[in-house]
């Protein structure tokens, strides 16, 4: 696949998820917009407002002028304050206002993506407040495709309407999360040099990966099958995503986890599994 084809594949994945979200929300009754999601402090309405906020910023729209209340317990740092502002600004909006704004923002963003003249490697700004950075255009699209698919799944769980677990955005998300596994095992969980940890994920996006920690303490991930790894963690795809994206703690999904080998190491890895900033 060429770089330009990769760019288009990420745009297609993003499009698939945002269109699925608008279709999902169309029949939702007004009171369901206040259902809590697994994003701390956020309702269905808040997740949709977050999508609007990020896409609007990518379009170059000015940040809203708004003062956050001081009693939002889930807002615990500067990054959280940054992403909360456009969400809180829309908490007084009706569902029809929010979904109309989402649809209009998606139309504008789709047009901007079609007309973009960026090369895949051109550096562009990733909007994340204190965590903002310049990233290649293709990387921005990759992250956005993964983010929107994860948010679609947040909405589906809250609305009890499962689906699209193997959508194009799911495959993008898989690769993004696999990229972070070596850091989880080697640095954050502190697995010693020479350690191997195998992850067996079942379901619509199943895979087997092994993280190895080398003599210098650096982790790598590959598709090889290891006989007798130090630890083996088996879980389903949806649980893998929920844990890696910081939606649930391991103890809340203990019935979906199976361990082999060093149980203490497995527990330590899962305790540091969230890749959410």
From TrEMBL:
Residues covered by the MDMPI C-terminal domain: 175-264
Regions annotated as coiled coil: none
Keyword list, A-Z: Isomerase
Cross-referenced Gene3D superfamilies: dinb family like domain (1.20.120.450)
Record has Isomerase as a keyword: yes
Mycothiol-dependent maleylpyruvate isomerase metal-binding domain residues: 15-156
SUPFAM superfamilies from the UniProt entry: DinB/YfiT-like putative metalloenzymes (SSF109854)
Any Pfam family matching the protein: MDMPI_N
GO molecular function, one term: isomerase activity
Protein name, UniProt field: Maleylpyruvate isomerase family mycothiol-dependent enzyme
């Amino acid at each position: 696949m060429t770089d330009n084809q990769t760019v288009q594949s990420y745009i297609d994945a993003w499009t698939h998820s945002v269109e699925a979200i608008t279709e999902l929300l169309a029949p939702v009754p007004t009171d369901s917009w206040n259902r809590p999601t697994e994003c701390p402090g956020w309702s269905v309405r808040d997740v949709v407002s977050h999508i609007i906020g990020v896409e609007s910023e990518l379009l170059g729209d000015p940040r809203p002028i708004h003062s956050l209340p001081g009693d939002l317990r889930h807002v615990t740092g500067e990054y959280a304050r940054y992403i909360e502002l456009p969400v809180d600004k829309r908490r007084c909006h009706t569902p029809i206002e929010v979904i109309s704004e989402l649809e209009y923002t998606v139309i504008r963003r789709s047009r901007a993506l079609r007309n973009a003249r960026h090369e895949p490697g051109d550096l562009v700004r990733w909007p994340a407040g204190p965590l903002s950075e310049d990233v290649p255009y293709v990387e921005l699209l990759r992250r956005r495709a993964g983010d929107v698919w994860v948010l679609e799944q947040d909405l589906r769980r809250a609305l009890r309407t499962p689906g699209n677990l193997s959508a194009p955005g799911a495959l993008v998300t898989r690769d993004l999360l696999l990229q972070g596994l070596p850091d989880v095992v080697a640095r954050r969980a502190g697995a010693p040099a020479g350690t191997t940890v195998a992850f067996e994920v079942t379901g619509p996006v199943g895979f087997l990966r092994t993280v190895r920690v080398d003599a210098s303490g650096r982790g790598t991930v590959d598709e090889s099958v290891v006989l007798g790894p130090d630890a083996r963690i088996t879980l389903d795809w949806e649980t893998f995503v929920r844990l890696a994206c910081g939606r649930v703690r391991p103890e809340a999904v203990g019935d979906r986890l199976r361990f082999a080998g060093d149980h203490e190491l497995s527990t330590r890895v899962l305790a540091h599994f969230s890749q959410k900033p």
